[in-house]
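Ticket #4471: complex job returned nothing on first submit. Input attached below:
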Amino acid sequence: MKPDELLPLYGFVQGDTLGLLVLVRTTDTIAQLSASLQEAAQMRVSPSAEFVVHHRDRRLEPTSTVVAAGLTALDRVELIREPGA
Amino acid sequence: MLKRQEWLDLARKLDWTYSYVQERDVFPEAMSGRPWLEHEHWKNWDEPYRTTFAEYVTGQHEKEGAIAAVRDAVGKVADFGRHDRAWLSALKLHGATLPLAEFAAVVGNLRAARFGRDSAWRTTAAFGALDELRHTQIPLTVLHELVAWDPQFDWTHRFFHTNEWVAVAARHFVDELLLGSNPIEFAIATNFVFETGFTNLQFVGLSAVARDVGDRMFEKMVQSIQTDEARHAQIGGPVLRKLVEHDKAYAQYLVDKWFWRAWLFFAVVTGFAMDYLTPLKERKQSFREFVDEWIVEQFERMIHEYGLERPWYWDEFVKSTRYYHHLLYASAYTYRATVWFDVVLPSPEERAWLAEKYPESWPELAPVWQRITERWQASGPDVEWFTHGVTPVGFCSLCQLVLCGGTPGKNSARVVERDGRRLVFCSEPCVWIYEREPERYSAHRTIVERILAGEAPANLIELVRDYFGLTEATWGKDARRGRYPFTAVASGGNAE
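Support reply: We reran it on our side without changes. The output follows.
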């Protein structure tokens, strides 16, 4: 994977009604990915600091980058609400 | 002079032994379907209507006369103009998805009229082809007059010729169901599952709704079509019975596959109409109640009569009757510029009705509508974009519909690696259908794949205008432009 490459991901926000296709940079942090997804779903789901990004049943660290988290093109990521997160 | 019963079978059931060609060459398996059986096995094939050509022509002539009379009386622009805008959207949805699909059914029936394995089957299929031609022409004729009045009705004919996402999904379904199936698969998929199993949703449910709404034209149209469907749907049963006798596993596979595919289609076209686009005071039954009564109970009993089991995903299907069309409708509402009909925001009274009808699922759906309502309250009326998505959405690699499977709490979409390609499916049945016949589906690309390949624009406005073929005059909007009593609380508020 090239540095700072654009990566399409399938994103699912808990409480939402459909799956979205978000484009992120590989150098983006997981927190930025979360913000992008929440913005994309905001007309249906209220943004919240409680959302945590999950990938294959693994909780991703908000400070990690997309590439460091091991995400690849068209992976499925989920935003799951975790009270107190 | 011979009596009807004395000459009828000479006209509709006349098979003979081939002397200079093999039966397998006249009915090759690739065209006639499998299992390939000698005609001896099919010779007792029959259906109950046993219609003669003269009876057919006379009956159809009378039906056409009745349709014309109703059209003259209540089929003018002024008559349609009296309906609620939401109901007009139901007409636009049905008007677009059905007529040219019926035209594809002409082809499927004509293939059976040539390659069906018994002459009585072929005769009934020939009538079926004529039926479907009529089902194409009636809605095209009735709705054509409305095009000048409301350009969204132009999609009655235009829809299947576009790359609009519902059209892509509908074509994917219809092409396989009606154009790509051999007569045996066509008989199970179309005549048995689609026409016998599901079309009561249209012909009983929606017809009753249309009557209550006061839309006598739509009511008459679907009732007239139903009388044809009831006849040619009879092809399915005797073919399925023979298939069960010779290859039960294949029969079960075809039923399971087509039940799921038909369910997704009807969830869109009938689910939206019954639970959202019909004015509340006219709703007698929810979509779920109708599915429970007419599909869950009747279809289950019917397949057991043929010695088959209910589809392996039955529990998932039943659960999806509580969720799927709701998720899809809310998604379509917030991407309404991508469709050719207007949508409505359910009122507090409608939400209370939906909560009563869907006690298992509505608590998870209500927050979505509350959020949309708050956005309208913040923006004030006419600010469509504030409750509209701009990010591209995912589409299922099998059904080509938006990834709306499962529940708001847990979407059931799954990414699957296949031949170096990443596919995404909205549900386990869609994965299963694809994996059983990947050669049938692998060449098709979802809209997301087309965007990523540079064949379709990623920008939503460009996608809608240049790729879907919608214009500002035809793309979907909120039917009331956000002017609801319950969104007026903060009207004049500023968008964020």
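The CA atoms of residues 15 and 45 of chain A lie 7 Å apart. Closing as resolved unless it happens again.
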